[in-house]
Design a protein that fits this description.
Blueprint lengths: L18 E7 L2 E4 H4 L13 E5 L10 E8 L3 H5 L3 H12 L3 E8 L9 H11 L3 E6 L9 H17 L11 E6 L10 H13 L7 E5 L36 E5 L6 E3 L6 E5 H6 L18 H10 L4 E8 L15 E5 L5 E5 L9 E2 L1
Parallel strand pairs: 4-5, 4-7, 5-6, 8-12, 9-13
Antiparallel strand pairs: 1-2, 1-3, 3-6, 7-11, 8-11, 10-12, 13-14, 14-15
Helix pairs in contact: 3-6
Length: 361
């Protein structure tokens, strides 16, 4: 039984949640009545079949925080008092009006760890939990970043439905969490809840605030920062030959450092000011993957926010553990960057591998 469930209040006479068939599109989940006719095999040209569990989210006069996540093989995180569960607990205890929307598709080989059953149990216990249950999204039809982009776009559209852009409208914030990361150990969700509160109050100077790692920064593929020197695709761009690939970068951000601006980042946790996005016309921004996963799905979305004039930032104190950074041996590292507690930045590079000489960048 999930340790999260007792923290999600449920009416004693709550009815079983609705299960509404529909399809998932990059513009959001659509009921069958809005998705157009189905093909003879039961599929839809609009997108893969998806069932929505629970009631749709509507704007609240007091503002809403929508916690979202792509759930695949995360049953253990949801059942135990750590990782995603602890993070969701912290958010539910800190924010006054929280809705949870979780997306699940069955991986190849089936749902062996029982993630879908665990999610359905959560939804049956609390009206605050909504689910989007998709048909299997398998390669070669769906590469990893294509699948994640669809998931994130469906969740983003659902969260945006809680935001109104009119003058005097209540705020709304989305807290996006990778459910296999540990957001509870370092009080990251307390900082995320405070950031969401700033968004609800209209006091956030950014549209997206993302997380740091303990030790080496983990999510370098999603990062774009000219100041740090990692302003290219460290998996596939031609700069990997001279500046290094993702595993050739050593990047450390002191948790005491101030918030600083970037063009893209994620690292397992992000807080998004949905009202600010709507007012800037950025509600049209979407995540985008590619066949064979040749790009990180987060980058197109965050670069779109930047083009709309919105700020994207990292909060070094919002520390999330998503596993050890994939860093090559010390002799292979070509580029280093660090942000210190006082906010100063240090960078260095060397040509080649261990025979090269380090020089300030």
């Amino acid at each position: 039984m999930s340790a999260l469930l007792p923290l999600l209040p449920t009416a004693a006479t709550a009815a079983a949640p609705d299960h509404t068939p529909g399809v998932c599109t990059h513009g959001g989940w659509k009921a069958d009545s809005d998705a157009g006719p189905r093909k003879s095999d039961g599929s839809s040209a609009a997108g893969p079949n998806c069932t929505y569990v629970g009631r749709r989210i509507a704007p609240s006069s007091t503002g809403t925080v929508v916690a979202v996540g792509c759930a695949r093989n995360v049953a253990s995180s949801l059942r135990t008092a750590r990782s995603a569960n602890r993070g969701l607990e912290a958010l539910g205890n800190s924010a006054p009006n929280v809705a949870y929307v979780l997306f699940h598709d069955v991986p190849r080989g089936g749902d062996r760890d029982g993630t879908r059953d665990e999610l359905l149990r959560m939804a049956s216990r609390s009206e605050r939990v909504r689910l989007v249950l998709a048909q299997p999204l398998l390669y070669p039809g769906w590469s990893r970043t294509q699948r994640l982009a669809l998931c994130r776009n469906v969740l983003l559209a659902e969260a945006l439905s809680a935001a109104s852009s009119g003058d005097g409208a209540a705020g709304a914030a989305m807290v996006a969490l990778d459910l296999d990361c540990d957001a509870g150990t370092h009080d990251a969700m307390a900082r995320a809840a405070a950031a969401a509160g700033a968004a609800l109050a209209g006091a956030a100077p950014w549209a997206a605030l993302t997380a740091n790692s303990p030790g080496e920064y983990h999510d370098r593929w999603a990062l774009r920062s000219a100041a740090l020197g990692l302003d290219y695709d460290c998996q596939f761009a031609k700069q990997t030959r001279t500046l290094g690939g993702c595993a050739d970068w050593s990047l450390r951000l002191d948790p005491r450092a101030p918030v600083f601006a970037v063009d893209s980042a994620f690292n397992g946790l992000g807080v998004y000011d949905l009202r600010r996005m709507r007012r800037a016309g950025a509600d049209e921004c979407r995540y985008r993957g590619s066949r064979n996963s040749m790009n990180c799905e987060h980058v197109p979305f965050h670069l779109c926010l930047r083009r709309k004039g919105l700020g994207v930032a990292i909060d070094p104190g919002m520390v999330v553990g998503c596993g050890a950074a994939r860093l090559g041996p010390a002799w292979r590292v070509r580029s280093k960057a660090a942000v210190f507690a006082n906010g100063t930045l240090w960078r260095a590079q060397r040509a080649g591998n261990w025979t090269g000489t380090w020089a300030p960048a």
